[in-house]
Amino acid sequence: MTDPHGRTTRRRASDQGQGAPDDDDQDLDLVERSLKASGCLELHYQVQACMVDHKDWRKCREPVQAFRECIQAHQNRKSSDPSTHGPISGATQ
């Protein structure tokens, strides 16, 4: 799989025909899978593209800010969802 910058992501040996699901996620690395799950992957690619084009993060403030807001919103959703938290330590059953 190729990202917007022409890089090819490598597949892990465990993903190459050994019972791995045949979907787009198997070609993504861990960071990209996390960003895809958060809904922020496209914004991540926009920041990368801007940095490639301008080579100066100060010229990429808008896409960086949009990416930060997306990640923050995801973290807020995640922290307010009790199903994403582990068991409470010291709790009795």
From TrEMBL:
Keywords: Disulfide bond. One of its GO terms (cellular component) is mitochondrial intermembrane space. It comes from the Eukaryota. Residues 1-28, 74-93 are annotated as: Disordered. Residues 40-72 form the CHCH domain. One of its GO terms (biological process) is mitochondrial respiratory chain complex IV assembly. This is Putative coiled-coil-helix-coiled-coil-helix domain-containing protein 8.
